[in-house]
Amino acid sequence: MTVFQRPSRRRFLQATASIGAAGFAFPLSQASFGDTSPNERPVFATIGLRNQGWTITSKSFQFADFAAFADVDAKVLGQNIERATKTQGKAPEGYSDYRKILDRKDIDAVMIATPDHWHTKIAVEAMLAGKDVYCEKPLTLTIGEGKLIEKIVKQTGRVFQVGTMQRSEYKGRFLQAVAMVREGRIGDIQKVTCGIGGSDSSDVIPAVDVPEGLDWDFWLGPAPKAPYRALPEIRKGYGGGVPRYTNCHYAWRNWFEYSGGQMNDWGAHHVDIATWALGADKTGPNKITPVSYSLPVEYKDGYPTVDDRYNVPTKFEILCNMPGDIPLVITSEGDNGIMFEGTKGRFFVNRGKIVGKPVEDLASNPLPEGAIEEVYGGPVAKNHTDNFIQAMRDRTQPISDVWSHNRMLETCHLANISIRLGRELNWDPDKREIIGDEEASSFISRESREGYEIEGV
């Protein structure tokens, strides 16, 4: 049993009350668990271990002890148990069924890095089991899932961090960008462009035998029943070692059944920063217009007419009408990153650079002292997990809270719906409803496959 020291009931109730009243609260940075006694380190578990699952786990060993892993692929599970054992000197327990982790009383928090279609079910059940949650982005597959997660966070008072790491990492470039916009360094905002890249198309991907050790039915989980598909070519580079063309490992991002393509994948990063800088993280757009787009298969009534090829948009330009009638453009073209344009200049930021004359002008006219900390809500954490653990200790919500994330992600979800139906959508950001389009509104939620409904709601 962990001896992780939880806050007093009084502090917990104060924090929970503030969440209910204001939606969320940012923590002020103090000494992290990783900087204190080993007996105060929280106990974590990771659910979904391939690629990003191991990335967020490996960044967290300095702050937490990992007692358990879960993955539906026995090979992935075994490999990562071995890696973790070498790193922390003791082996986490391995499970094929994540629910056995949620049953354990010694685990304080779970990190979720499954494919997107599993996020909501696991996250909700984890909170109801008394766990704090760190969940990878994009948080949800639908707008309705986001609303459910918000409800359960408020109901349980759990701490919930979304894995939009650009808010905490990458040498503070994105924090600097937000601070520059807020300090008026480019004047009044005229346009923001998010370059997020396009997705691949594919030839027909045949149904083949499921790889040994993979529980395919459990991998599908809440998604519709489907055969395992793959072509022989093996993917190289990041996410490599598996079929390049498949409806499973890594390439699941190219199927609406499990993801939202680049719109939700990279969009969840760059649209997040753009929305934050615009001060629109408590509201959203009022109109979404698909200026241009390309789908790799034919669609009817918003659904692909074939099920054996990638189906998310390969190219697109989406115009989002943000508060103040500021245009936010989401495009598959150009450099990956964000261009901010205003009446006094423009600058570009991505994970490797922040450039433009307003940036150069900082040499002679730096941002005011404390401007970055004001954006972040206190001293910037060592990394995204550090911020999460600080929030666990203080019982406040971290820098990537579910409310601001869902508001941003609604823009991405709406963009995908507009592409699938091929028309403009009007959105009420107060009611969080599509206006006057019953067919489009049907995409707000999706039923789970029988046997994989969310337990406890």
Automatic annotation (TrEMBL):
Organism listed in the record: Aporhodopirellula aestuarii
Pfam assignment, any one: GFO_IDH_MocA
InterPro entries in the cross-refs: Gfo/Idh/MocA-like_OxRdtase_N, Gfo/Idh/MocA_oxidrdct_glycsds, Gfo/Idh/MocA_OxRdtase_bact_C, NAD(P)-bd_dom_sf, TAT_signal, TAT_signal_bac_arc
Domain Gfo/Idh/MocA-like oxidoreductase N-terminal, residue spans: 76-163
Protein name, per record: Gfo/Idh/MocA family oxidoreductase
Gfo/Idh/MocA-like oxidoreductase bacterial type C-terminal domain: residues covered: 205-453
